[in-house]
Amino acid sequence: MLTSFMSYLGSQFSPGVAGNQLWALIYILIIFTGVSVAVIAMNWIERKALAHFQVRLGPMRVGPHGLLQPIADALKLLLKEDIIPAEADQFVFWVAPLIGLLAAFTVYTVVPFGPSQAVSDMNIGILFMLGVSSLGVLGIVMAGWASNSHYPLIGALRSSAQMVSYEVAMGLAVVSAILMTSLNETGTGTLSMIGIVQAQQQQGIWFIFKFFPLGLIAFVIFAIAMVAETNRAPFDLAEAESELTAGFHTEYSGLRWSLFMLAEYAAMIAVSSIAVTLWLGGWLHPFPNRLNAPAWEFTFSLFPALTFGGLAAIAFVGVKRMPADSFFKIQRAGLAVFAALLGLLALLLLVIAIAGRNADTSIAARFREGIDYVFWFVLKVAVFMYMFIWYRATWPRYRFDQLMKVGWKVMLPISLGVLIVTAIVGVLVK
Amino acid sequence: MTPGMAPVATPFFFYLLSGLAVIGGVLVITRRNAVHSALALIVTLLAVSGLYLMLYAPFVAGVQIIVYAGGIMVLFLFVIMLVNLERTVKERQFNRIWPIGVVAAVALLGLFVSVYVKGKNLFPEPRLPLAEANNTQEIGVMLYGNYMFAFEIASLLLLVAILGAVIMAKKRI
Amino acid sequence: MAEITTLHYLVVAAALFVLGVIGVLTRRNVVIVLMSIELILNAVNLNLVAFSRMWGNLHGQVFSIFIVVDAAAEAAVGLGILIAFFRNKETINVDEIDLLKW
Question: ipTM surpassing 0.90, yes or no?
């Protein structure tokens, strides 16, 4: 087993392609842990960011600045009574959140965090991601039906009709990005996620800027469609509290509801990673081909350490600004510990960046490269996550008929037009 | 470019996936509740998609997941929810001549079995594993080459089906 | 049974086909009959893809894509007809839909 552990370490391929199941399992565990931590962090950031947008403070009590609020929420949901409506279909009621969760988490098999940092680089990667995320609709439909009450049923029907409608525009925008991968010498494109980012590296341009403004329009179409696909504001008619009493997950309580929430946030991160891979260059740092002198590489590799150092500094300033009352002693201590942890992480990343600064094949250099790739990918996805929260805070909700009208009458023709014009321009440029 | 993928535990996955497919098929035709049948059909479709992956057909597997499991089954579930009557669950599920149907199907199965037993030599061993890395490109070349006419007719068929479904299901024409 | 040959896949496809035929011939619920038809089409697809692997070319796979397209179209129109009928007669049992004009 040790040989199978060590034999993968020099490989340039993802564990699935290299056939190494142990490392595939390790990557799966890391991704699962990472996504769970990201969902918890998203929960906190959403509440604090929404609150600050609305000129209030958000959770402040549960930990320093509410940092332990998601944990308290999770504990509350775990300890709540599990209510199942009497006339509900028991099996389907139980299975629906599982299907949603499975569909949301299975897509992470092909998400490319780096050129070999994916669980398995399938050569139909983007097709797989689109297909499995369309299985999430089934979970919603079954949840609404199994609750045997009319608000969830209407909410599920509306939500699934919306998801299915925006999947079409999403798919066409994706196809126009895939078309851009085939604009190389051999004329063959690829559906594999790692191959798409490598095509952007080879063509020296992020696809959002390619054939300006075509890439940008395709990206904007995808960005709108992905918000509608995950039932987030302003397209959250199906699950907003003031509209349909929480829509399809009305009758779900406690742990089952938290499974839906987990599936929703995981799906948000998944579609954001599709957008990042297809248009924003995945794991590539800005100007990947122009700025690749060793000095620039070293500068870019300091970014993870600088980011965590910045976060640690913000937390430290928060500690200083807390009132020096004995009432806040525990909160100050907690926040100071958090700041110290972030600072330690920043220091660790700095050590790795300095130790691996030559582009050789030593362990430190490969670690540094891996961390750099993952950092840039996660940074771009984090920007998208913040945009999701920003949309929720800023825009009013679409009415359902307006939503369907936009999906079919505006997005579909524009994405078809972008696809056709991209194809024509691609042929003319050759 | 990619290293050769040695099939690992192939008989295990084959028996698992085909067992899931057949059990799903049995559940589809025997459940009283149409939603349970639809769920069993989804399991069957996903298992068959896995079997396609084992047959070196990743693109068809992807199309199966997107179109069949993600599209057609959602349509089925919508319609089941719309026409769901309480009394259908309590009524008689099989029609009156069901023994004849079963006998006919078993005769068909006997025919299949006799063909497969007698004609074992008709199905030779696969010559080479199909190249998986450019499966999509090759299918694209064929679709736009040999099968161009069928491709266009398929798109016309879909247009007619969309029109037909909308007109049939509208309240007032 | 260490080697999975084409015949194994053909047997699975035959089993699915026969299950679909039983479903079409015996069930009363129209939606379940339509789902059994989807089972039959899937069995045919599995056959085609297994033969495509056996012969080493991609004709079987391309044809199976067309069958998937066809199944989608047929499911949509069939369910549309079912909805139209259900609105008039309030039943979804096959043996109660037996009048040309009422």
Answer: yes
